[in-house]
Amino acid sequence: xxxxxxxxxxxxxxxxxxxxxxxxxxxxxxxxxxxxxxxxxxxxxxxxxxxxxxxxxxxxxxxxxxxxxxxxxxxxxxxxxxxxxxxxxxxxxxxxxxxxxxxxxxxxxxxxxxxxxxxxxxxxxxxxxxxxxxxxxxxxxxxxxxxxxxxxxxxxxxxxxxxxxxxxxxxxxxxxxxxxxxxxxxxxxxxxxxxxxxxxxxxxxxxxxxxxxxxxxxxxxxxxxxxxxxxxxxxxxxxxxxxxxxxxxxxxxxxxxxxxxxxxxxxxxxxxxxxxxxxxxxxxxxxxxxxxxxxxxxxxxxxxxxxxxxxxxxxxxxxxxxxxxxxxxxxxxxxxxxxxxxxxxxxxxxxxxxxxxxxxxxxx
Length: 364
Hints:
By secondary structure, the chain is of the alpha+beta class. Among the domains are: 43-191, no CATH class; 205-276, no CATH class. Helices cover 38% and strands 14% of the residues. The chain has 11 helices and 7 strands. The model is unreliable at 330-352 and 355-364 (pLDDT under 50).
């Protein structure tokens, strides 16, 4: 061994890290892509600097939010509604979330398609929202299959327009959640209450006119008045501003195809027994027998101090037979007429006073 060489003790050999494959990059980058990369970096830096130099005015943001929520056009699009597990799910739409982000200020949000895989028929998407002033950023990365659910089962999407609309529809829901995550809860709740109040006011129209408009709109899509009343649980004459507001939300959800008519208004099933019972007239109520003018009820004394005797029911005699004499005929009182003489009160239970006579089957 030469003096220039140093002998090192043999020790355990350290494992070498595996080689990392380089990240694939596009083989050709256009001039527009390079400019866009530089512009995006400069835009982010400028947004942060502006947000720090000119922070948001909360009172101004609240005033803008209240003014926007007082507009009927925004209030009509502020809520969604759909059915899940037999119950109705409702909440603020992405339209309301975007408007609140604009009013709050210094909030960036968006939807990015990171990758599209035509072999596996899916797209990798990312939704984000960023409060630049508070440096609060939330993002959600998710996979959107190129499939549309129908009543007959899932259907694969091959048309480019169908794929784009499906990705946008799925992504807008995530964007809504990202925006609501960076906004203060009190700001969102106040906006929801104001939009509900705007719907109840109905743009200044009278309540009767709003009810008539609701009935007419739903009639165009095959919803009857009976279905609407069954939905609200009361006749249309007793509907309130809250009822018309809820029907307006359902109508907008039908227009956006979030729900179907069958989901919200199932057909009313009527049995044959119910139809027969509805068409069968009810019998007239029985009329109680009225006592004579100077005759007291059984067990009580008459005005002249004598106890009243129960009256035997009259029996019809044969048409060709001799007249029948009642054995218990009431004798004539002193100076008065007998019970069967003209002018005596009638004891026949089929006798009615003039004010008690009515036609058969009618009501008094």
